[in-house]
Every structure is written in C-alpha cells, then in structure tokens.
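Structure in, sequence out. Go:
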C-alpha cells in the first residue's frame, strides 16, 4: 500500500512539473504576480493592434447591417405607399364612374343569346335547354330577374351576363 501511495505521489509531481513547463514554454512573455496584488504587465503592441482591428471590423459590419436594414425598411415603406395610392385611385375611380351596367334584361346587362328565340317566338333547344326563358319584374327600386330551371341539367346561352347594381 505504501508503494502505491509513493507511486501516485511521484506521478502527481511529474504531471505538475510537465504542466508548469508547458505553460512557461507556451507563453514566453508571461509574468507572475504576487499573491497580494501588484501591477500586470502592459499588453503588447500586437495585441493592442489586433483588438483595435477587431473592434473596427465589428463596427464596420454593424454599420453595413444597419444600412441594409434602413434600405429594406425604406423599400417596404415605398411599396406600402404605392399600394395605398393604387387603392385610393381605384376607389376614387369607382366612385366617379357612373353605373355602366344596365339593370334587368337589357343589352349590356342580362341579355339572352342571339338565336335563342327565333323570329316566330320558338326557343332553340340547342342554345337554351332545361329552363324557361327569363322573366323580369320590378319590386320597388329593384329589378328582379328569374330563370326557372325545369330539368336537372340546364344549358343557357347569354350574349352578356352582367348584373346591374339594382338587379336581383
């Protein structure tokens, strides 16, 4: 047992010596301070230059990132302003525009297809199939148009199918 303790102590001393030697070899300009304090050696010129260079590089990168963020923000603001201007222009154009779609069964509004009704009043069943012809009536200021479908499948031909603002 004593031999084991001696071996362990010898190994510890050897490791401590090698570690101390490695520290001195790796840092030739190192200085020891007294345990109670003292002054630390001044950093070398190379260390100061490296720190200053790193600081300058970090400041440059921060400026570039800040500039990129400013450009992106301005671009987004410009796009939003353009979209708002386009919306406002569209709203103004709609408000200034007179009603261009006629109400009811009229040319430009709801107009059944040319050739659906023959000159003798007969309905061409190739162009209008599965429903009665549309009817129209007025209800107050509204014009109501009805198409009664009488088969499961209907084929209806319209020249225009525009629903006016007062048409139901």
């Amino acid at each position: 047992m004593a031999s084991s303790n001696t071996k362990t102590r010898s190994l510890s001393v050897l490791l401590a010596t090698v570690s101390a030697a490695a520290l001195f070899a790796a840092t030739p300009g190192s200085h020891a301070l007294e345990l109670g304090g003292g002054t630390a050696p001044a950093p070398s010129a190379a260390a100061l230059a490296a720190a200053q260079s790193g600081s300058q590089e970090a400041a440059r990168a921060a400026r570039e990132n800040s500039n990129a963020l400013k450009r992106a923000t301005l671009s987004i603001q410009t796009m939003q302003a353009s979209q708002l201007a386009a919306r406002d222009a569209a709203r103004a154009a709609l408000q200034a525009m007179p009603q261009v779609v006629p109400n009811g069964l009229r040319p430009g509004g709801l107009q059944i297809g040319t050739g659906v009704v023959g000159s003798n009043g007969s309905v061409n069943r190739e162009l209008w199939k599965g429903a009665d012809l549309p009817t129209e009536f007025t209800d107050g200021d509204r014009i109501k148009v009805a198409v009664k479908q009488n088969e499961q499948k209907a084929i209806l031909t319209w020249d225009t199918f525009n629903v006016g603002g007062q048409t139901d």
